Amino acid sequence: MITTNGYIITTNEEEAEMMLVKEVLFEQLKVTKNRLYNIHRTYYPIAEGISDYGNGEMYILDDLGRQIYGFSMLCKKVYYKFN
């Protein structure tokens, strides 16, 4: 059973705090279908001509504990934010 108490679905990845994996599109991605993952963010110093990634560059920790930055292209997902 997936528990999302206090969280609501959002389509805005800038405000997303968690994500639910609906389908894995890349078999080497070590995440579990129908599992919730916390979204973490890396913040870079703002330099001239370089994007500051707005609200940080998003990543999740996969099932092996590795940081995965490209997860948004590697699986179908639903984003959640705290209500």
Structure description:
The protein is mostly beta strands. The strands form two sheets. Strands 1-7-2-3 form a four-stranded antiparallel β-sheet. Strands 4-5-6 form a three-stranded antiparallel β-sheet, with no helix packed on it. It contains one helix and seven strands; from the N terminus they run ββββββαβ. It has one helix at 71-74, and strands at residues 7-10, 18-24, 36-38, 40-42, 57-61, 67-68, 75-82. It has one domain (7-82).
SSE sequence, one letter per element? EEEEEEHE
Strand tally: 7
**Parts with pLDDT < 50 across at least 5 consecutive residues:** none
In total, the number of domains comes to 1
Beginning-to-end CA distance, first to last residue: 20 Å
Look at the structure and give the mean pLDDT: 87
Using only C-alpha atoms, the radius of gyration works out to 13 Å
**Arrangement of strands in the largest sheet:** 1-7-2-3
The geometry reads as globular
- Helix/strand-derived category reads mainly beta
Largest sheet: 4 strands, antiparallel
